[in-house]
């Protein structure tokens, strides 16, 4: 059977992209509405374009389903994190973490401490999601208690969480990028130190400077005391309640998959709610389903602790499905490939090749809404271009992570951005200016691309 599909032109492939940009700008910027409907509309436009190009509906639907299936593991984790937050608050686990955090951390060092704590946890677990869902949730509460803007706190959490997601040998993206580019894992990690190291050092300095704004102020001492006393009067607070997050982190470090590890943490939260907080099972189930509702009578505490539940994650699940339906159509019908090839034609030097790779990763994080697609497609498309210029594959794998991994949580409808926004309770566009590591590292990578610094060439034995 002859293939009746028309060859896709660049202008045709751009139609769904331009439409998406316009409707997103109108819906979010003008009408102040969430991006679900624009993404569904863009998926419909992409499907119409594909039909005109003679793609059968079955193929288009397969693309949508495949796109959604890429995120099913993430969706399940997101749902379990909602359950876990609800049981951890009712079980006194999150209140204990906030209580002791307010006792130990001061406003001046809090942002730097947040970056370092999340970096250590994510480096050990290899998971930014597990880091945000455990210590990240508590650190948001501690930061609010200290009077530090939640956007800054979330930015420091994201920077620390994605440091480990990028640098840990346990991370899936850290293994995926070198596999796509054609290099080995540890060469890839060592090469990323050149971009991640400067970005991390500058981030510490910037968070330190931000911290000086709060070192003499932040939340007034009497307000912190009100929060501490209210938490103490409404929950049984004890160091043993810090055990569940430690056990979850240990389980993930021991290579137990995140989903069962988080489910185990959820169960522990329910057990502690029944035993330590004397809550009936029915209320524990309700907290897991609908979230915990704090009724302490103190607004600061109620705002901190009214969170979680399966239902709170459903809008985010819907957002991921809508976004990946659009991305799946664009990939399956070859429109993404056309866009990538058009960009490659403009490459003249090593600097422009690195820039094209980085901006392709960022663009695919926005268009395809999935960091794996943002790593795999540019890796596949630009591998030969790096080889032809005699550049070692680890240069490509570094670019894929510098942009593909690190910018994924900055886009609200990307699966990573949606997860972080729902888990931390902060829209990614709000914390974006303070996610310093995620913003700086791609810039360092661009600098190296245009200057040639650290852009290692393939050695003669490697060419054979």
List the helices and strands and how they pair.
Elements: H1 10-30, H2 36-52, H3 57-70, H4 72-90, H5 93-104, H6 107-125, H7 128-145, H8 150-167, H9 172-181, H10 185-212, H11 221-234, H12 243-253, H13 258-275, H14 281-290, H15 299-305, H16 310-332, H17 335-344, H18 350-367, H19 371-388, H20 393-405, H21 415-424, H22 428-431, H23 436-451, H24 460-463
Could you characterize the architecture of this molecule?
There is one protein chain. This protein is an all-alpha fold. The protein has a domain at 72-312. 76% of the residues lie in helices and 0% in strands. It has helices at 10-30, 36-52, 57-70, 72-90, 93-104, 107-125, 128-145, 150-167, 172-181, 185-212, 221-234, 243-253, 258-275, 281-290, 299-305, 310-332, 335-344, 350-367, 371-388, 393-405, 415-424, 428-431, 436-451, 460-463. The two termini are 41 Å apart.
- The total strand number stands at 0
Helix proportion: over 70%
N-to-C order of helices and strands: HHHHHHHHHHHHHHHHHHHHHHHH
- Oligomer description: single chain
**Overall pLDDT metric:** 92
In percent terms, what proportion of residues is strand? Answer: under 5%
The major beta sheet can be summarized as: none
Q: Per the principal axes of the C-alpha atoms, what is the gross shape?
A: globular
Number of H/I helices:
24
Q: Given the helix and strand composition, which structural class is it?
A: mainly alpha
C-alpha Rg, in Å?
23 Å
**First CA to last CA: what distance?**
41 Å
- Uncertain runs with pLDDT below 50, 5 residues or more? none
